[in-house]
Recover the amino acids of this structure.
């Protein structure tokens, strides 16, 4: 297996995630895009772990950790989104501009 | 040693007068009086001592050189030293006597004046500077004194600076002489570098090629024309009459204006024929023009001022014609009688409370002492025997008659004509001041900036004594000349002068109330305005410079400041643009952040 | 580094590339679809395809965890979020912000930079796949021998996140006055 393949797939996934984060209005969609980016990283970690034959399996272990952290992040993120929704009745990012220059 | 004392004593007087006159401090009338008294002592005593020492030097009559130190400049060394040659001692004698007379005179003239201490201190400083010029053994030392004189002239002309015209006159005097001084300084540089030394004796002994000499002396001539009020830099002198009369007597008649002539005489061997011709042409124009201008003036002091320009041009003409000794002789006699005339004029003005000839008349009886002494002064000015001016003018005319100069005819003719005009204007001023009917009414309050009106019959003793003392050399100095006496030119000059005087007398007899200057006819206007030289300068130099200055101010306001203000405004405008980016949209921020990271990454890859 | 040629690709590589294509395509649909719920479902497909990729790369355990946590938990959570924020079900045209063009440019530039760097850096790297190296046994041993401390720290982090999520989402807990 050429390492280039998983690396390129991961790069494309990451870029798509970037686009989603930058272009989507809905906060939940933005969270999904963040998940895409995290998965791109995961793919990289696994591929390089396989390529380097790490005896500690640090790549795969780290992937597990990232998955766990991603789950926690989604939980916290959704809680924040819900809190914002409760107070503002909106979760569109470009409508949450209270910190902008008036 | 004695020479140094001569120079240093008035300087010390000036320093003490400035520092200690007002000690202990106070501003009440009583303190003012005490300060003036102390300042008078500080002013008179050092000058008197100095004059006495000069007299002793003249008695000893041994040329001596004192070198204090040689300043190693890396290039040509500067010799700080003094040299007492015959010419120097003679001129210094003139300076000392006139300065002493003026110091004593101004004690009375400036009585009750609250700024008298600084006034007398500046006179002392001026005296010291002039003596430094006279005795300097080094061109740069001479230049130091030369510049201090210019400064003192500025300070003293502007003594009554409360009036705008006076301070303007002071600035004009300063600027015009400064214009010449620039040339003078560069002339010194050229001479010094050509000769490899700034010592006057070395420079005079050096073998300098003629073109260099012409250049250097022409540059020197610029400074001479400025200080000695020669055409074309003469315009400051009539305006400088705004200063107190003693200053006019000291600076603008006897000493400072003599410095230019003195320098030419001192460095006479250096002056090649072309330079002398230039000097001669300027002098020939200046002496006749200034005499004519003097004839048409209505202000007594301006009459004397133009007369000074005319007489200085006389000396310059003598120098140009090769009669150096005659020029120096006239320098001394002129210093004496012109100082006398100015001091007398001061007494008259003090009495009348006005400078204008039209306000005077019939003063012969109320002011007998002034009348007689001023008559002596006018006689010397016209050149009537036995007054001193007769002999010195005779010497100059004789010298010009015999001159081998290529412009001899111009010089001689101009000088002879000037003798006639001099007789005319002197007679006019004399008649209008002392004869006719009295028009004097004591003004209730003197106009600001003029002398205080003295309501007594004569000036105070402190003013009369210097006048009386100065009258003696003005009358008798002519007999001290060792040169032989030449009858033919003397008779010619006398006849011409008397002709001019008689002409004016006849005109005046016809109508004593009216100004004899009317005989100039259509030329009266141009003569009174001194041939519009001032206006010409105003049009050619002053206004363009002022316009340029205004342009510079405008450029500074609009271009330089505008650039600064524009930068500020542009910054505010641009920041207004960038603040649109700060709209609170977090996605926009992240976009910018990522784009920046990308740029950095690409840059690192491409450049690294 | 390695003498293995890109052409012809091995069977594994073809499988991997197909899975990767599915993952990338569904990811693209996630960020471009106009229906919120569809986005979540496309995300499921993307994560599944990624799990397949992990399998091909012999990381079995990670693949199962991916399916369990991502597909099973995260996506469900996201769906709950969509429901709780009363998002419109069905097409809605305002899911993209006005920032889209700029975002596309930045994303393309990112892709360009990353792909070119990755290709330039690893074009000769070749990984020999040995089945079993990513089994639960291997990974479990590695985690509990070598990575115990990070593992424990992570459990504390999870607990904190749990509490935080509860505090944030409950309305009857107010901050300290």
């Amino acid at each position: 297996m050429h390492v280039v393949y998983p690396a390129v797939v991961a790069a494309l996934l990451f870029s798509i995630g970037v686009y989603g984060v930058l272009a989507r209005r809905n906060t939940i969609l933005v969270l999904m895009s963040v998940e895409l980016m995290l998965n791109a990283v995961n793919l990289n970690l696994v591929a390089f772990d396989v390529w380097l034959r790490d005896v500690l399996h640090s790549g795969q272990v780290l992937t597990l950790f990232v998955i766990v952290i991603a789950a926690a992040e989604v939980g916290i993120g959704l809680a924040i989104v819900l809190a914002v929704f409760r107070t503002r009745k909106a979760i569109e990012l470009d409508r949450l501009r209270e910190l902008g220059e008036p | 040693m004695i020479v140094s004392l001569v120079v240093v004593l008035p300087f010390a007087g000036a320093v003490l007068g400035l520092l200690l006159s007002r000690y202990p401090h106070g501003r009440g009338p009583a303190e003012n009086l005490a300060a003036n008294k102390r300042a008078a002592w500080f002013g008179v005593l050092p000058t008197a001592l100095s004059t006495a020492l000069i007299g002793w030097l003249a008695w000893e009559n041994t040329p001596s050189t004192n070198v204090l130190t040689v300043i190693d400049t890396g290039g040509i060394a500067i010799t700080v030293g003094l040299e007492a040659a015959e010419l120097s001692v003679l001129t210094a004698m003139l300076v000392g006597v006139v300065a002493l007379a003026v110091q004593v005179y101004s004690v009375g003239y400036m009585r009750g004046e609250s700024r008298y201490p600084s006034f007398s201190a500046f006179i002392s400083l001026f005296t010291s500077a002039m003596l430094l010029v006279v005795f300097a053994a080094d061109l740069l030392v001479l230049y130091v004194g030369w510049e201090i004189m210019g400064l003192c002239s500025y300070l003293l002309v502007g003594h009554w600076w409360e009036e705008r015209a006076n301070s303007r006159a002071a600035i004009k005097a300063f600027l015009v002489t400064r214009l010449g001084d620039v040339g003078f300084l560069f002339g010194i540089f050229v001479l010094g570098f050509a000769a490899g030394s700034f010592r006057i004796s070395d420079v005079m002994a050096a073998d300098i090629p003629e073109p260099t000499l012409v250049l250097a002396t022409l540059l020197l001539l610029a400074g001479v024309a400025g200080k000695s009020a020669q055409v074309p830099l003469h315009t400051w002198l009539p305006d400088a009459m705004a200063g107190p009369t003693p200053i006019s007597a000291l600076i603008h008649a006897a000493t400072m204006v003599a410095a230019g002539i003195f320098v030419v005489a001192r460095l006479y061997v250096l002056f090649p024929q072309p330079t002398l011709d230039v000097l001669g042409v300027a002098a020939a124009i200046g002496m006749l023009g200034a005499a004519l201008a003097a004839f048409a003036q209505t202000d007594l002091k301006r009459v004397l001022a133009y007369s000074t320009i005319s007489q200085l041009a006389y000396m310059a003409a003598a120098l140009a014609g090769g009669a150096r000794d005659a020029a120096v002789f006239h320098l001394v006699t002129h210093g004496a009688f012109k100082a006398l005339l100015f001091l007398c004029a001061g007494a008259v003005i003090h009495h009348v409370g006005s400078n204008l000839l039209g306000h005077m008349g019939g003063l012969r009886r109320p002011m007998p002492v002034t009348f007689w002494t001023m008559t002596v002064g006018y006689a010397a000015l016209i050149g009537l025997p036995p007054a001193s001016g007769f002999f010195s003018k005779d010497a100059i005319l004789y010298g010009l008659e015999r001159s081998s100069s290529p412009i001899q005819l111009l010089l001689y003719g101009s000088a002879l004509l000037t003798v006639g005009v001099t007789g005319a204007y002197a007679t006019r001023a004399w008649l209008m001041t002392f004869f006719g009917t009295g028009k004097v009414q004591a003004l209730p309050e003197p106009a600001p900036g003029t002398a205080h009106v003295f309501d007594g019959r004569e000036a105070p003793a402190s003013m009369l004594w210097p006048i009386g003392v100065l009258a003696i050399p003005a009358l008798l100095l002519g007999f001290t000349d060792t040169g032989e006496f030449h009858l033919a030119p003397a008779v010619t000059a006398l006849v011409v002068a008397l002709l001019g005087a008689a002409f004016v007398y006849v005109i005046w007899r016809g109508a004593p109330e009216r100004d004899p200057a009317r005989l100039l006819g259509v030329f009266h206007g141009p003569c009174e305005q001194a041939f519009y030289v001032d206006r010409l300068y105003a049009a050619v130099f002053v206004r363009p410079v002022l316009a340029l200055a205004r342009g510079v101010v405008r450029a500074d306001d609009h271009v330089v400041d505008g650039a600064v203000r524009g930068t500020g405004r542009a910054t505010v405008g641009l920041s207004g643009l960038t603040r649109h980016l700060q709209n609170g949209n977090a996605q926009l921020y992240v976009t910018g952040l990522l784009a920046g990271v990308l740029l950095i990454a690409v840059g690192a890859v491409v450049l690294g | 580094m390695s003498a293995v040629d890109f052409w012809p690709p091995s069977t594994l590589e073809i499988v991997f590339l197909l899975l990767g294509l599915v993952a990338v395509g569904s990811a693209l649909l996630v960020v471009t679809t106009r229906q919120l719920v569809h986005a979540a479902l496309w995300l499921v497909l993307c994560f599944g395809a990624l799990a397949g990729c992990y399998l091909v790369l012999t990381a079995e355990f990670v693949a199962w965890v991916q399916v369990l946590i991502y597909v099973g938990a995260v996506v469900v959570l996201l769906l709950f979020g969509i429901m709780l924020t009363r998002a419109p079900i069905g097409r809605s045209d305002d899911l993209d912000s006005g920032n889209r063009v700029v975002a596309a440019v930045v994303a393309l530039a990112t892709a360009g930079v990353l792909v070119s760097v990755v290709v330039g850096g690893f074009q000769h790297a070749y990984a020999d796949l040995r089945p079993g190296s990513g089994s639960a046994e291997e990974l479990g041993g590695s985690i509990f021998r070598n990575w115990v401390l990070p593992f424990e720290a992570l459990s504390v982090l999870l607990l904190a996140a749990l509490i935080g999520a509860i505090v944030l989402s409950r309305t009857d807990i107010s901050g300290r006055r």
Remarks:
- The two ends of chain C are 65 Å apart (CA to CA).
- Helices of chain C lie at 11-32, 36-56, 60-84, 100-122, 136-146, 148-169.
- DSSP finds six helices and no strands in chain C.
